[in-house]
C-alpha cells in the first residue's frame, strides 16, 4: 500500500475536525482549555471568509493495491495576513498548526509548510512567512529551523479583552 500527502484547502464540513484540533493544540502547547462552541464559530468564520483566515489540511492518501484511494486528514495549519508598511507587502502568518501525535515526525508539517511557501512565493505582494512558537517548544523550533525559518528576534506582547458571547 503506497501513501502520499496531498494538501487541500479546508471546507465548511471540516469545521468540527479543525475545532477539535485547535482545542487539542491549545491544551498541549499552553494548557489552555478553550470553549468548543467559541472555537467552532471561529473556525467556521475563518473558513467562510478568506480575509480572516485560510485553513489547509494535509491528507494522507493510501493507494490500496491500485484499486482505490483512501484519504485521511493528518494535520492542519491556518494562514492569516499582516500588512507591512515598511516593506509595502504582506506577511502570511502560520497559526493553529496541529498534527495528531500518531502522524508526527512523518513530514506532515513540512508538506503543509512547503505548500503555503510555494503559494506565498507565487503570489504578488507576499513578502514572507511568519509564525510564533512557545519558547520551551524545542521540537517545533528545530522543525521550523530545518525548513529555513529563523528567529526574527521579537517577543510577542498582548492585551486580551473579554468578549461577550454573540
Keywords:
166 residues, alpha+beta, five-stranded mixed beta sheet, 31% helix, 31% strand, Acyl_CoA_acyltransferase
How does this model look, in words?
The model has no long low-confidence stretch (mean pLDDT 93). It is built from four helices and five strands. It has a five-stranded mixed sheet, with helices on both faces. Helix content is 31%, strand content 31%. It has one domain: 3-Layer(aba) Sandwich (Aminopeptidase). The radius of gyration is 17 Å and the shape is globular. Helix 1 packs across helix 2. 21% of the residues are buried. It is an alpha+beta fold. The chain starts with a strand and ends in a 20-residue tail after the last helix. Strand 3 and strand 4 form a beta hairpin.
Sequence-ordered SSE layout with sheet pairings:
Blueprint: E1 2-9, H1 15-30, H2 36-48, E2 54-64, E3 68-84, E4 89-98, H3 108-121, E5 126-131, H4 138-146
Parallel strand pairs: 4-5
Antiparallel strand pairs: 1-2, 2-3, 3-4
The CATH topology is what?
Answer: Aminopeptidase
- CATH class identity: Alpha Beta
Shape: globular
Radius of gyration: 17 Å
Strand content: 25-35%
CATH superfamily: Gcn5-related N-acetyltransferase (GNAT)
- Helix-strand pattern, N to C? EHHEEEHEH
What is the CATH architecture annotation?
A: 3-Layer(aba) Sandwich
Pfam family, one: Acetyltransf_1
Organism: Lysobacter niastensis
InterPro entries: Acyl_CoA_acyltransferase (IPR016181), GNAT_dom (IPR000182)
Domain N-acetyltransferase: 5-166
What's this entry about, in short?
It comes from Lysobacter niastensis. This protein has helices spanning 15-30, 36-48, 108-121, 138-146; strands spanning 2-9, 54-64, 68-84, 89-98, 126-131.
